[in-house]
Amino acid sequence: MCVWGRRIKNASRGAVKCNCREENISLSSSGIFCSIFFIFIFFGFKFFMLFNHMMDSITILLSLLAGASSATTAVELKDINLIITTDTHGWVASHSHSDNDPLLTANYGDVASFVSHVKDQAINSGRGDVFFVNNGDHVEGSGLSDATLYTSAKIHGAELFPIISQMPFDVLTIGNHDLYDDETVGFMVESGFIGNWDGHYLTSNTFSSNDHSRIGSPYIILEGEVKHQKVMFFGFLYHMKDSCGTITVTDPADEVKEDWFISALAEGKAQNVSAIVVMSHMDLVDDAVSVILKAIRALDPSIAVQFVTGHTHYRGFKKLDSRASTFEAGHYLDTVGLLTLDVPSTTAPEEEEIWFNYRYIDANKKTLMSSVGMGDDEASFDTSLGLAIAQSTDAAKTKLGLDEVLACVPKIYKYGVDVEDENSLYKLYMNEILPRGVNGEAETETETETETDYVHITSTGTLRYDLYEDFRYDDVFAIAPFANTFCFIDNVAGEEIDSLLKLLNVNVGVGEEAELPKFITSNYTSDGGSLKMFLNNYDQGVLVVNLAELRGVAVEEIVVVNWRADKGSDTFTDTTLVWKSGVSALFPC
Fold first, then answer.
1. CA angle 344, 74, 324 (to 5 degrees)
2. What's the average model confidence in pLDDT over 43-69?
3. Which residues does 440 contact at the CB level (< 8 Å), separation at least 6?
4. Of 393, 522, 489, which is closest to residue 110 (Cα–Cα)?
């Protein structure tokens, strides 16, 4: 494996791969007081400086806040309660591999049953109002969301969106992965998926490019079923600039200056809403969070404000001011988030602080059952709606053949480890999978290329999941969901590739979370003749620009040739299909 430059987080299509931004701080008792005292004095100053620095970061803030564990204690409700899923990416059928402890055995049907019991608990206790929300990114990540690309449907989500439509969400918003393909957006609109939510699907800054109309609603005010509190919801996406052509996403900083937003806040105030919830498909520390909060505070300094964030695939919480916070609840249905708060009385002073309680509940069915006080009573826990959703999910999986075992892999390959590690999935990808599926094989009878005439280069956002021993059809899409086509640039010298890697991987972040360089290549030799450099079309833009810079030529002078990119051809392949054929060939059962 050839890499250059510093190591960085594994960025995946605009989202940082990071399971949790909590740092578990524990102290081990040694029983030797004088040693502890000496260490404390000796390192006291450094620790004090480090602590003050880290207090500004979310990791320490998270570790110091209580109530953030996934313990199986019963749900405790407050005035307003949010149950949250985000960035599921089609993982609605539970996890089939042992990728978490406890095992992530809950499916969307189980989550629907859990929500029903929490709402019943709220009604029976009279304690508070419960809202079930989803923060977008439904597709690109599992067979249920992506296998239909290779059926007659030819789109993401043809089997998934009907399942999601059965879920009892009170509010949904849109994610960036829902907006990369015109066909996917067209299906969401034309099939009625968005419209059938009857105004509850919020897209505050996502518009149709044709007439600049929103594809969803800008906001909604909902009244709770128990205490009848009114809550205003917005639905913002980060300022996405690479959406498909039929969609335009505006900058939230511009949108909050518009008359509709100011009027919406005035309407909320007139209706005495108890809180504002901003569904925000963006990092919980995205600048847009602060911008939106500032715009709200300009018109209402004291109202409770909760940002439900996502996109960056971790668990995280941050207090923004005395009455506002931001909370993110994982990804791939590994977490059911719970955020609760009490609303100050109308006579409370404006400076009175709100305490936001939050929990990350592991998406394990027994954990969900215990959280609503049902122990192992599965029959009582399963609701008719939950069972119907689970049955729809199983039927779709069977229809698509997602449980078919394609290969028997001798060990687990991990996508987040060092590329030189023997268990590195990227090492396997670059030096085994790609050379078998995308290579110098002659396209015409006159070509005589050999395996030493080419090199592969890729960004490290290409892969998203580990390779397990029982490799199933579903895993093809979990590992490589993006279906990017391949292309090549001819006559690239080995020395140029050396320089290209240095240029691409320079000035990247470092730190404890650093794992992978931005770009890596398959094995090649720097000396000797020129190479055919294979890449995928997602990476094409940045690679062409940087290669042109190295050569001192215009971008237009870099010739890029598509390779087996015709979907109507028998030889078609892409970054997803190459896994299906490659792993099966490498590790037959």
1. 30
2. 41
3. 449, 450, 451, 453, 454, 532
4. 393
Beta bridge partner(s), residue 486: 536, 563
Domains of the chain in sequence order: 58-400 (3.60.21.10), 404-586 (3.90.780.10)
Q: Which residue has the higher pLDDT, 17 or 78?
A: 78
Helix 108-125 × helix 384-400 angle, to 10°: 170
Nearest to 528 by CA among 496, 488, 502: 496
Distance CA(115)–CA(146), nearest Å, equals 27
In whole angstroms, what is the distance from residue 463 CA to residue 575 CA? 9
Q: Residue with structure tokens 């909902």? A: 222
- And the tokens for 487? 């292309």
Q: Which residues, in sequence order, are bridge partners of residue 231? A: 222, 275
Non-local CB neighbours of 92 within 8 Å, separated by 6+ positions: 107, 108, 142, 144, 160, 163, 164, 333, 393
pLDDT band at 156 (very low <50, low <70, confident <90, very high): very high
136, 110, 248, 135: which is closest to 188 by C-alpha? 136
Can you tell me the distance from the alpha carbon of 289 to that of 325, in angstroms, rounded to the nearest whole number?
A: 10
pLDDT at 403 over 70: yes
DSSP class of 296: H
The reported pTM is: 0.88
